[in-house]
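Example record

One chain of 303 residues, shown exactly as stored in the release files.
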Amino acid sequence: MEAKWLEDFIALAETRSFSRAAELRHITQPAFSRRIQALEAWVGTDLVDRTVYPTRLTPAGETFRAEAIAMLAKLEETRAMLRGMRPASQAVLDFAVPHTLSLTFFPQWLSRIRAEAGLPRFTARLMALNVHDAAMSLVQGGSDLAMVYYHPSLPVQLDPRHYDVLVLGTEAVYPYARSNPDGTPQYVLGETQPAPYLAYAPNAYLGRIAELILSAAQPRPALDEQYETDMAEGLKAMALEGHGVAFLPESAVTREVASRRLACAGAAYTETMEIRLYRERPPAGGSAKPLVDALWRYLSHSR
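Predicted structure tokens for this chain:
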């Protein structure tokens, strides 16, 4: 049994709708339904009455709902206790970072911080998540800092009254395809023939950026979807093998473009995102973790 199954079940109990609960949990409805079924298989009985609408819980589901809330609360309590017991916790910075940023922007950014910021010796601990879960990790106390992509059309829902934010840089997204021997792309968006398309899974943040780009194009380029995953690195690997066109952050393909293994498949099809860093705002009259405060001061003054 996984904790996320309990969170899924509680979302379903509160919304009484598979589609709305799946949207809140940032997964597809089929995937959400499979996770509820997996939970029911683990419990050994039906928790949801699927014969009525709106969806409602079975008597067993109503009983389990209270237990699920209690189990999640106990998990949070235990995690908080263990984090407090962690040796030298003040010398650790916990980062929640989307997978792509963890492989591209974050390593070089951390090197600069270590070289220039004059901070005490510390351990950086990174959790690679999707954008939504990285933000939720900060909200739930699972990280000190969240580094995420931001676009005004797809804002990260963190209340500015409670969370401080710094803009660390920008990241452009373009379509890329394998290069021909002469350096031109194997496929080009906007041609008469549909381009084989390497897509992100629904609800992936970069997938929604790609959809913004495609929706703004006039006319919308013809695409023939060939593959789907939620990882930019997976799409890059498929593009390198010549399977089609993928929308990728520019920093993720710097080496491949320089070595003429990938080429831009349409420079007009682009959007730019900000790379933002969030922290929980210290309470009035209080202070944050000293290491977080020191890093925040350095970043605020070096902009």
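Notes: The chain is about 40% helix and 25% strand.
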